[in-house]
Amino acid sequence: MKLEASLKHFSPQGMHISDDVKSTSPYRLNGTDVMTGIGVTSSRARFGLAAFFGKAGISKTDEQLAVQALARYALETAPKNVRKAAGKVLGRCCLILAQFAFAEYSRSAETTGVCRVCSGTGKVQTTITERKVTYPWGKAPYWAKRSRAVRPSDWEKWTEVTAISSAKCEACDGKGEINARCRCGGSGQVLDRKETKEHGAPVYKACERCSGNGFSTVPSTAAYKAILTLIPDLHVRTWTRNWKPFCDALVDVCWKEERHADKEFQKATDF
What whole-number distance in Å separates Cα of residue 54 and Cα of residue 67? Predict the structure, then answer.
């Protein structure tokens, strides 16, 4: 039984909790068997199991445990250049890198974030300037149109009025949240028009915008700006050369630990 199938135990829609087909499977795993497998996996691969459950949104506690474990790992394996640049704030820097690495690891096409344009309100304020006319001395008399000395506009007074109105945010369509899904619809594939025209049949290619992931990644500049609050003199070239590869390595550690937890869970549930 795969680790992904254990998520059915937390929101079951039936009595059959397994990744096998119900009508043809000779085995039946009940809730006790699944919980036993989770307990065994927790003792053998605690980090990977906590990271998986935190990514799936099962428990905030598991997410915090995974971030703390990742921060400890970063503190132990930090390169010399990172240690030298961080100095006394190495622990806080490792915690920030662990938080961003876990956010990148748990990111998917369904991930949502607060809209930066409207700050989550769904509305933006627009300033409209209009010109309005008033008649402080009353409207021009009828003979002003025929007179050569005066004009009807002499009785008019034009002023500019600035009004602030709220309108729907176009970036998030008034929802206050922005989805991380790419323009390809989250599939990671787009239609190759040139190949489709040559073959006469639909031909798809990897989306160049999201590199086939189906969603946008967390920009590394966000982590860089967070580190700048602790190390103001950190140059962007130093970040790109030493810090960013280290942050990417922490993301790979999360995936590696999840695969290890998956193997241990399959061993615990294969009878």
Answer: 9
| Angle of helix 244-269 versus helix 90-105 axis, rounded to 10 | 60
Nearest to 106 by CA among 183, 218, 189: 218
Mark out the alpha helices in 9-125 (DSSP H runs).
31-44, 46-56, 60-77, 80-86, 90-105
Q: How many Å apart are CA 223 and CA 243, to the nearest integer?
A: 10
The structural domains of the chain, with segments of one domain joined by +, span: 3-107+217-269, 112-179, 182-213
Kindly report each contact of residues 64-68 with a partner whose C-beta sits within 8 Å and lies 24 or more positions away, as own/partner. Answer: 66/102, 66/254, 67/95, 67/98, 67/99, 67/102, 68/98
Give 200's pLDDT tier (boundaries 50, 70, 90): confident
Q: How far apart are CA 170 and CA 30, in angstroms?
A: 48
- Which residues are CB-neighbours of 48 under 8 A, at least 6 positions away? 256, 257, 258, 259, 260, 261, 262, 264
- pLDDT tens profile 61-104: 888 999 999 999 999 999 999 999 888 999 999 999 999 999 88
Task: Classify domain 3-107+217-269 at the CATH class level.
Answer: mainly alpha
